[in-house]
Amino acid sequence: MIFHAKNLFFLFLCSSLGLGAETLTLKNYLDQVKEKHLGYQATQLVSQGAMERAEEGRLLTSPQLFSNVNYLDDRRPTNNPSFLGNRTVFEKYSVGLMEQTGFGLSAKLSYNITRTELFGVNTTFVPLPQFYDTVPSVELNQSLWRNGFGSETRATQRVAEAQARATSLAESLKAKLILAEAETAYWRLSIARELVDVAKNGVERAKKIQEWSARRASLALADKSDALQSEAGFQAKQLELQMALDEQREATKRFNSLKGEDSEQLSSFLEKVETDTLVNLSAFDKKGKREDVLAADEARKVAQAAAELGREKNAPTVDVFTSYSLNGRDSALSKSISDASRTNQNTLAVGLKVLAPLDLGTVVNNRAGYIKEEKGAELNYQRKLFEEQIEWNELVTRLNENKRRLQMAKEIEKVQKQKLDNERNRLKTGRSVLYQVVLFEQDYANSQVMKLKTELQILALMAQMKTYLPQQESTGEQK
Length: 479
Description:
Elements: H1 5-17, E1 23-24, H2 26-36, H3 38-52, E2 64-74, H4 81-84, E3 87-100, E4 105-119, E5 130-143, H5 151-218, H6 224-257, E6 269-270, H7 275-279, H8 291-313, E7 317-325, E8 328-330, H9 333-339, E9 347-355, H10 360-428, H11 434-465
Helix pairs in contact: 2-5, 3-5, 5-6, 5-8, 5-11, 8-10, 10-11
């Protein structure tokens, strides 16, 4: 696309109209991203929700209230109606507490009241055709092999906790990566705007050379090829400006999309960072492990607990159990309850339960599989640790390299500026020509572009490095 004078005038007019615009700081922009980026809000909610349910496993060993109400009306024929009647109405009401402890003991305390009424019985043989049974009871079951002393219960708790924490950490890292992307987008747009200004000046200078060369060629003071060369240079600068404008448009659109807007326009000014500030910038101190490494650690814990669960669920069941209850029976409910408070009508039961799998080959293979998964999770965690350190060291190295390049670019820009100022002074005294001055202006502009692009690389690296900081330190304005 070829730019004419009216196009350039329009661009400069747009720039001048922005003089009254407010400055949108990086901190304010990141606050807008947090508020309007639906993906960021989703990661925050999922992370917080997962962390809040990390204690879900505790419910396995928490006391539970239970109750039960049954009603039965049985009118089936019986073999001996004199004793069994021809209809039985049965009601049962139960309430109690039960708990699975962390050391393998399950306990159940209940209070049961039943009402039984027999119709059609001979009261000579069944003196109480309608009666109440009141039975307070306690039941205990202690596991000795599978879930021995609560190992399976505790492993189940660890699985639930580690899975929830892994989810929370993964989502927390996603949130930090979104903010890092937003910070990079901020500086990308800020630098893109400066590059557009540099490109505009380049078009102006190329236009001067083109006009100067065309005038000399028309006066036969220069060869036509010089005029054609300057015309090609002018069009090349127009192309550079168009590319800079395209980059600014793309950067603006990405900038707006991260704060929930579909627009290619932005009237606010953005912050600029001084070159000396970036040259003297120090890398952050990495504190602890990043969330992806911590999530791998939680995955390792899940695998360890799952391996223990696998071993436990395929182990033989050997449980010792006992139950003790008091009993009261009477045609009157109050008397039945009163009788149930005495121990002369108690019931005691003690037993042993054994259940063992016979397919030992499958049991052995399952245990071997769980062990391999556990080792794999451990190796994955160790690899994550290694990769994290390598990536961090690479970021620090690249930061230092770019800082050195920025220092060099700064010196080059300084020299080019001095060269340009000197040539302008020579032009004023008639010892140089406009063509030479404009060439030096282009050299100066190229040094500016090189410096700005290096600054953007440093700012993008700093945004990446912030993902290694704790959540509360990973946001905020560029220091």
